[in-house]
């Protein structure tokens, strides 16, 4: 089946803007094969992001893969990713736009997946919890560190759970009912993250999770679960969307009591400055 026929089969499931893109592709495949995403958007009268979101709706990795499919329709032969990449390089396709628009599309998809009521509940839990623990293993660990550092700028008692078994046992053992565990599971389900979440939940702590899939097994033990990205998104795009959601959650938490959080931030910054001054003095 040609790719244009696949578009026709899925046409009814597309949004209004995506249908404009779909119809243009069916009517003008040569234009798609020879123009970059931003130019196509201008010709259709939609944003470049809408073009990229259409690609994701068709379960493609991005505009480059769409061009591969259309070129294969036009020539009657499959174009490999390697050949497409070589041609793209020769035509000086704007890689910056391509990559960053995939990030934008991933963030926009996350917005659509996020329940506003759950978002409000999450920022209240972040604000009200006495102690806050952040868990992220393997490729989710850098995101957990980012979240921990960001939160630590505004409030006390924020700890990142370290992956060593003895640390996990010790830190979960200190959790109380007014504690909050924030789990970041941005890759394929990590059995260790699932077990730790289940164990923490047995201590009656609240659990908020950000996962890559809305069918993640962590759902059974999370009070609130957010899904970022989509099935076709690369991990880097999923992480970008997760960090944007984290930013929004922290801003929401701060909005609960701006004066309190800003005062803590100032005091924390002053402490850091005094510490650096003392450290320099000791080495003079």
Automatic annotation (TrEMBL):
<dbReference type="InterPro" id="IPR009057">
    <property type="entry name" value="Homeodomain-like_sf"/>
</dbReference>
<dbReference type="GO" id="GO:1901135">
    <property type="term" value="P:carbohydrate derivative metabolic process"/>
</dbReference>
<dbReference type="InterPro" id="IPR036388">
    <property type="entry name" value="WH-like_DNA-bd_sf"/>
</dbReference>
<dbReference type="InterPro" id="IPR035472">
    <property type="entry name" value="RpiR-like_SIS"/>
</dbReference>
<dbReference type="GO" id="GO:0097367">
    <property type="term" value="F:carbohydrate derivative binding"/>
</dbReference>
<dbReference type="GO" id="GO:0003700">
    <property type="term" value="F:DNA-binding transcription factor activity"/>
</dbReference>
<dbReference type="GO" id="GO:0003677">
    <property type="term" value="F:DNA binding"/>
</dbReference>
<dbReference type="Pfam" id="PF01380">
    <property type="entry name" value="SIS"/>
</dbReference>
<dbReference type="InterPro" id="IPR001347">
    <property type="entry name" value="SIS_dom"/>
</dbReference>
<feature type="domain" description="SIS">
    <location>
        <begin position="122"/>
        <end position="260"/>
    </location>
</feature>
<keyword id="KW-0804">Transcription</keyword>
<feature type="domain" description="HTH rpiR-type">
    <location>
        <begin position="1"/>
        <end position="77"/>
    </location>
</feature>
<dbReference type="Pfam" id="PF01418">
    <property type="entry name" value="HTH_6"/>
</dbReference>
<keyword id="KW-0238">DNA-binding</keyword>
<dbReference type="InterPro" id="IPR000281">
    <property type="entry name" value="HTH_RpiR"/>
</dbReference>
<keyword id="KW-0805">Transcription regulation</keyword>
<dbReference type="InterPro" id="IPR047640">
    <property type="entry name" value="RpiR-like"/>
</dbReference>
<protein>
    <submittedName>
        <fullName>RpiR family transcriptional regulator</fullName>
    </submittedName>
</protein>
<dbReference type="InterPro" id="IPR046348">
    <property type="entry name" value="SIS_dom_sf"/>
</dbReference>
């Amino acid at each position: 089946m040609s790719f244009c026929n696949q578009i026709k089969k899925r046409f009814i499931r597309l949004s209004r803007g995506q249908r404009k893109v779909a119809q243009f592709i069916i009517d003008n495949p040569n234009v798609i094969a020879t123009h970059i995403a931003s130019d196509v958007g201008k010709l259709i009268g939609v944003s470049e992001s809408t073009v990229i979101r259409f690609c994701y709706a068709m379960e493609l990795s991005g505009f480059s893969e769409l061009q591969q499919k259309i070129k294969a329709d036009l020539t009657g032969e499959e174009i490999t990713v390697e050949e497409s990449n070589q041609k793209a390089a020769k035509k000086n396709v704007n890689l910056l736009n391509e990559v960053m628009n995939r990030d934008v599309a991933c963030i926009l998809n996350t917005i659509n997946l996020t329940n506003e009521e759950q978002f409000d509940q999450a920022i209240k839990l972040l604000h009200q919890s006495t102690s806050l623990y952040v868990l992220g293993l393997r490729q989710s660990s850098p995101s957990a560190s980012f979240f921990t550092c960001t939160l630590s700028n505004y409030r006390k008692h924020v700890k990142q759970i370290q992956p060593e078994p003895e640390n996990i046992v010790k830190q979960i053992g200190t959790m109380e009912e007014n504690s909050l565990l924030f789990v970041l599971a941005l890759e394929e389900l990590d059995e260790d993250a699932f077990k730790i979440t289940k164990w923490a939940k047995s201590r009656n702590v609240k659990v908020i999770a950000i996962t890559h899939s809305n069918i993640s097994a962590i759902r059974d033990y999370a009070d609130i679960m957010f899904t970022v990205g989509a099935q076709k998104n690369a991990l880097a795009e999923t992480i970008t969307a997760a960090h944007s959601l984290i930013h929004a959650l922290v801003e929401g938490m701060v909005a609960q009591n701006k004066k309190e959080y800003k005062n803590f931030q100032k005091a924390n910054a002053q402490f850091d400055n005094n510490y650096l001054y003392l450290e320099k003095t000791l080495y003079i």
